[in-house]
Amino acid sequence: MLLLILILNIYFLVTDGRVGLTSALIGSKLYIMGGADDKYVYASLLYYDFTVLFDNIGHHATPIPVYSIWGTASIGGPNRTKIFLIGGKMEDKSSDSLSNTLVYSFDTINDNWTAPEISGNQPLRRREASSTFNPDNGWIYIFGGATVKSTNFNSTKFFNDFIILDSIGLSWINFNSSIDAPSRRASHTATLISNGIIVFIGGYELVDDKTIQDVDINQILMYDTKLGKWDYQFAVGDNVDPRNGHTSVLAPDGNIITYGGCRIDDLRSKPDLVVLKVTTIPFQWFAPSIPTENAPPPLTCHVAAIIENCMVISYGNITSDFSEPIGGNSEIYLFDTNSYKWIKEYMPHSGLFFF
Ligand SMILES: *[C@@H]1O[C@H](CO)[C@@H](O)[C@H](O)[C@H]1NC(C)=O
Ligand SMILES: *[C@@H]1O[C@H](CO)[C@@H](O)[C@H](O)[C@H]1NC(C)=O
Ligand SMILES: *[C@@H]1O[C@H](CO)[C@@H](O)[C@H](O)[C@H]1NC(C)=O
Ligand SMILES: *[C@@H]1O[C@H](CO)[C@@H](O)[C@H](O)[C@H]1NC(C)=O
Ligand SMILES: *[C@@H]1O[C@H](CO)[C@@H](O)[C@H](O)[C@H]1NC(C)=O
User: Fold this and answer.
1) pLDDT tens digit string along 89-138?
2) Domain range for residue 293?
3) Which residues is 198 bridged to in the sheet?
4) How far apart are CA 300 and CA 192, in angstroms?
5) pLDDT greater than 80 at residue 292
6) CA-closest residue to ligand 3 atom 9
7) Rounded CA gap, 48 and 25, in Å?
8) Nearest-CA neighbor of 183 among 201, 163, 148, 158?
9) Are 341 and 24 in contact (CB under 8 A)?
10) Separation between Cα atoms, residue 342 and residue 335, nearest integer Å
11) Stretch 230-251: mean pLDDT, rounded?
12) Whose C-alpha in 158, 162, 282, 344 is 20 to 30 A from the C-alpha of 205?
């Protein structure tokens, strides 16, 4: 039996600051794709393998067939070895025009991309939607988002429909989701918790068909994947700023850790790191006091993943208390969900990451 020791290290370097990228964790590998810096939209697919000691350089896998930003990505497929990159702005590499393909799928075993043929009614393209994989049925639940083409924010259309992609049968599941549907929103997070409920946090919403505003951070939207029903919870507890561009991960203790984001006025949302306790009713916001040692700058439009007790944060744009975000982040940061401290290295339990 191979004794596996792995150390996630703060000296991981990413190549440059980027926003609007998307990520998926498969086994021990964190895949990060697309996004843009101040100049370019990228087609790159990088991965970090956390079973390799001091593997601190992102490995380049086969690039996405299109330049991609503001999409959403989920694991999927019969063996959960595929990544589905859904929607967002996808530009043809040769023509710079918007791609006609809505979904690309990356096979992590064979290192190749396909545009899978998906039966059923193809939904409209959207950016900043959320996607959540349900391991019970292989379905990817896609919610919300905004139109891609518009350059004028005022004429952006927001979605509140709920789309399900069966990642095994490769079909769009016709689902009449406008019944009891919540407000139209984008740039929220969606996290599947242990009882089969998807918890949606934050984002911005369109109300009265004309006003774009922060979603009330205490109004927690939920979708029960077992009953197929929407519901709400009103969170109590510590004061938390509304936010979009944030990330949420499910910690091993069953609670949700939300990091970063900014408000609709583009200012930093505070506190940077907050915990939504969802294991008891009512849900409760908790703002732990966290030592600043090893902490990242405040970020928005970054990516996050959780590996055992370690939340990994990278990329994104650094937010400010006084202005719009001030510039890209190019480092990886680690947070210990047991000690609530930012750490420099993490040693996971041996062998856990074998497929
Ligand atoms: C899933 O994994 C099994 C066992 O490794 C393999 O036989 C099968 O071909 C895989 N299926 C797909 C669709 O990759
Ligand atoms: C991906 O690679 C596998 C194994 O080499 C091959 O069978 C399959 O046809 C490839 N798919 C595409 C779209 O290139
Ligand atoms: C968008 O709407 C706001 C508020 O109504 C207005 O101040 C602003 O000028 C509009 N922007 C554009 C580009 O139309
Ligand atoms: C969804 O709505 C369509 C049109 O109203 C209807 O034909 C279909 O049966 C509905 N599907 C479900 C699952 O309720
Ligand atoms: C960060 O945000 C600012 C303000 O919106 C923007 O000008 C800049 O391009 C962003 N940085 C990156 C890396 O996207």
Assistant:
1) 999 999 878 898 999 999 999 999 999 999 999 999 999 999 999 999 99
2) 2-353
3) 192, 223
4) 21
5) yes
6) 154
7) 10
8) 158
9) no
10) 4
11) 97
12) 282
Q: What's the first-to-final CA gap in the chain, in angstroms?
A: 15
pLDDT value of residue 246: 98
Mean pLDDT in the chain?
A: 88
| Strand pairing report for 219-224 and 229-234 | antiparallel
Q: How far does residue 121's CA lie from ligand 4's centre (Å)?
A: 13
Residue 176 CA to ligand 4 center (angstroms) comes to 6
104 contacts: CB under 8 Å, gap ≥ 6: 64, 65, 66, 84, 85, 90, 113, 114, 115, 116
Q: Report, as an integer, the average pLDDT of 290-303.
A: 96
pLDDT tens, residue by residue, 50-78: 776 545 567 899 999 999 999 999 999 99
Q: Is it the case that residue 144 has pLDDT exceeding 90?
A: yes
Considering the entire predicted model, what is its pTM? 0.89
- On whether the CB atoms of residues 191 and 258 are closer than 8 A, the answer is no
| Residue 138 to residue 153: CA distance in whole angstroms | 35
Q: What is the tally of structural domains in the chain?
A: 1
247, 325, 330 from 89: Cα distances, Å: 20, 21, 22
Residue 326: CB atoms within 10 Å = 13
Pocket of ligand 2 (CB under 6 A): 107, 110, 112, 114
Torsion sign across C-alpha atoms 316, 322, 323, 326: negative
**Order of all β-strands in the sheet with 45-49:** 22-26, 29-33, 45-49, 59-61
d(CA 122, CA 135) in angstroms, rounded, equals 23
CATH of the domain at 97: 2.120.10.80
Question: Does pLDDT of 81 surpass 90?
Answer: yes
pLDDT at 332: 87
77 alpha carbon – ligand 1 mean position (Å) = 10
Return the pLDDT at 192.
98
